[in-house]
Write a sequence for this structure.
């Protein structure tokens, strides 16, 4: 991938902009001053270990989590703004569909809530079922679905309204490799239509499938860059190694959180690297 | 992917926030709840049959026609109330636990759309439930009323809807389905003891009487007692019905307030 193509969209068309975002839950800091941008037309991977704050960040972007300090905007509006409710798609780890309804009944209901009616609703339901390879299952109760089918049913609801921002929380966990590859293909097709797609994962081999990466640990970003840039900056052989090197590097307070084009760590292996974003 | 976003979700609606209530979305929610019931025939059978089975039991436990004529209307008001309370409390708690509520709250659905959708769907079920128990009581069980059965049916349905509204409200305070089940004895049994079913409200000590006065089921039972004692509709019945409606509306609004779009 040519570098400008990777780096430019995030800067040129920031769809999601976070600034010094802090979220506390139950007196505990979960998100510790995040500053970032997420571009349209690309798939951004939110990578980090379980419990590092990925889900809380996604919930904050969707607008269902109260922000303690800082700000986040999507499409120029603050997270949770009513206009965004029909433009932001969100798939949680628990599928959040009605297991006692058929797939079609689920999709028709959520589609109606999103404002689709008549032919537009029928068309969107058919298109989503086809896109997720759920054809033939539309009249079956979702409660009878296999794990993989259930995961796709949850994704289907998130895709229904053709969201401009799509947030998927660990969408491929536990899925068969073929299905996983197909879903990543789908995410890239959705991004190619202009949407900002944010996919969280704790599995590092998924990082290479993303156009842009946010490496997260303990509620802070270790680095933000394209996979190629991430490897170049850290001198690592693979992204897992890159993550480990970044995690080892001491991060000065207020540093390593900046939206920039490359990974940033105050000192350590990357000191003297070509990119020095700083907090300015 | 280039489907048009329809007017409802457009800027005009958004500037003022998502409307609390949109008829099309309320209707869609009611249809969705009824579709869920349709896929669960066992629950439907229980909802429709249990009040009737309890009435039949009451008939043979009492085994005195005069006592049955007096007590049957009160129980016709209470059984559907209790069943609707528990069914609704659990259904909405499940909606919270499975994440569908959070999903809906992140979508352009009004909070009253959800509650009114449930109210319409379960209100319809309550009508069928009350019709079944009334028909069985008035024919097979030989219950006789001084006047028409219509006031009894109307108030019984209102009682069932009241139970549903209180169940919706109560479910907000249940973290798990296990807790929601316990609300049955916690919310409903005290009301059943104080509503005049067991001991006449006039015979209670003042403190209990005051408690009884602020509990909704007291008015449900009072209305049924008046209907079974009078051949025609009276102003006192109207007053009871207004109190029942006020409690129902308050519980629905209270329920809407407990639906949070954001959590801390």
């Amino acid at each position: 991938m040519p570098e400008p193509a990777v780096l430019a969209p995030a800067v040129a068309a920031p769809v999601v902009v976070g600034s010094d975002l802090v979220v506390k839950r139950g007196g505990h800091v979960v998100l510790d001053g995040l500053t970032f941008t997420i571009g349209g037309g690309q798939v951004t991977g939110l990578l980090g270990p379980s419990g590092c704050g990925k889900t809380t960040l996604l919930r904050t972007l969707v607008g269902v989590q109260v922000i303690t300090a800082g700000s986040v905007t999507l499409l120029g509006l603050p997270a949770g703004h009513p206009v965004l409710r029909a433009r932001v798609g969100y798939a949680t780890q628990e599928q959040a569909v009605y297991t006692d309804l058929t797939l079609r009944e689920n999709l028709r209901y959520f589609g109606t809530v999103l404002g689709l009616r008549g032919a537009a609703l029928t068309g969107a339901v058919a298109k989503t079922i086809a896109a997720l390879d759920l054809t033939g299952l539309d009249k079956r109760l979702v409660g009878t679905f296999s794990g993989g089918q259930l995961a796709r049913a949850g994704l289907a609801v998130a895709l229904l309204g053709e969201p401009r921002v799509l947030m998927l929380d660990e969408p491929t966990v536990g899925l068969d490799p073929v299905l996983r590859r197909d879903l990543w293909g789908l995410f890239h097709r959705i991004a190619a239509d202009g949407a900002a797609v944010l996919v969280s994962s704790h599995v590092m081999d998924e990082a290479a499938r993303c156009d842009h990466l946010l490496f997260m640990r303990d509620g802070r970003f270790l680095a933000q860059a394209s996979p190629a840039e991430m490897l170049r900056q850290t001198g690592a052989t693979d992204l897992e190694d890159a993550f480990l090197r970044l995690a080892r590097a001491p991060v000065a307070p207020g540093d390593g959180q900046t939206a920039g084009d490359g990974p940033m760590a105050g000192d350590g292996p990357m000191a003297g690297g070509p990119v020095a974003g700083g907090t300015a | 992917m280039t489907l048009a976003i329809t007017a409802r979700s457009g800027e005009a609606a958004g500037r003022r926030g998502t409307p609390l209530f949109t008829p099309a979305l309320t209707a869609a929610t009611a249809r969705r709840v009824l579709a869920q019931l349709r896929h669960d025939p066992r629950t439907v059978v229980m909802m429709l049959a249990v009040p009737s089975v309890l009435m039949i039991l009451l008939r043979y436990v009492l085994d005195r026609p005069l006592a049955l004529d007096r007590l049957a209307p009160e129980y016709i008001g209470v059984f559907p109330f209790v069943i609707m309370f528990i069914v609704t409390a659990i259904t909405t708690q499940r909606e919270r636990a499975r994440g569908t509520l959070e999903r809906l709250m992140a979508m352009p659905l009004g909070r009253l759309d959800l509650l009114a959708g449930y109210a319409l769907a379960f209100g319809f079920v309550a009508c069928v439930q009350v019709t079944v128990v009334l028909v069985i009581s008035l024919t097979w069980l030989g219950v006789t009323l001084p006047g028409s059965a219509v006031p009894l049916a109307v108030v019984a349905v209102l009682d069932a809807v009241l139970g549903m509204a209180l169940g919706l409200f109560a479910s907000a305070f249940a973290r798990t389905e296990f807790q929601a089940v316990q609300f049955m004895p916690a919310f409903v049994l005290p009301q059943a003891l104080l509503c005049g079913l067991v001991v006449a409200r006039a015979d209670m000590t003042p403190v209990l009487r005051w408690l009884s006065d602020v509990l909704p089921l007291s008015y449900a039972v009072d209305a049924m007692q008046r209907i079974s004692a009078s051949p025609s509709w009276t102003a006192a019945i109207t007053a009871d019905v207004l109190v029942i409606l006020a409690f129902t509306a308050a519980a629905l609004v209270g329920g809407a307030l407990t639906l949070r779009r954001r959590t801390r």
Q: What stands out?
A: The interface with chain A takes residues 1-11, 13-18, 24-25, 28-29, 31-32, 35-36, 39-40, 98-100, 102-109, 261-264 of chain B (CB under 8 Å). Chain B has a mean pLDDT of 87. Residues 65-97 of chain B form the longest helix (33 residues). Residues 21-258 of chain B form one domain.
